[in-house]
Structures are given as C-alpha cells and as structure tokens.
Design goal:
This protein is an alpha+beta fold. The chain has 3 helices and 3 strands.
C-alpha cells in the first residue's frame, strides 16, 4: 500500500509556477504550496504473495488497485 501526493497534480502545479515566472513574477514572491490531492494505491499481487488479505472496504477506498 502507498499513500502519497498525486504526481500528475504536482507536475501541473509546477507548470503553473513556471508560467507565472515566465510572465515576469519574481520566484521569491510566489507562495510555497503543499500537495492537496493524494492517492491511495494497493498492490494486490504483492499482498497475495505475502499471504495478506486486504478487506473489501479498504479496496473500495483505494484510488488504484494493482492486480
């Protein structure tokens, strides 16, 4: 299982920052942002190899399930 920030959202936010800098804003004036979108991924193949059973309620909450 993994719970972390959404990388595609971070890349999009970096593009917004670059655009603002290219339009003339000073990098020091830009706010520091923290991730706001997170994703929860479960690797069922690895869980089965380790002999773990993942409850259906947890699988339902996952953003992505790797089988």
């Amino acid at each position: 299982m993994s719970y972390g920030h959404d990388i595609s959202e971070s890349n999009r936010q970096a593009g917004v920052y670059i655009g603002r800098i290219l339009k003339g804003e000073k990098p020091a004036d830009l706010p520091v942002l923290q991730p706001t979108k997170f994703e929860f991924v479960i690797n069922l193949k690895t869980a089965k190899a380790l002999g773990l059973t993942i409850p259906p309620s947890l699988l339902a909450r996952a953003d992505e399930v790797i089988e």
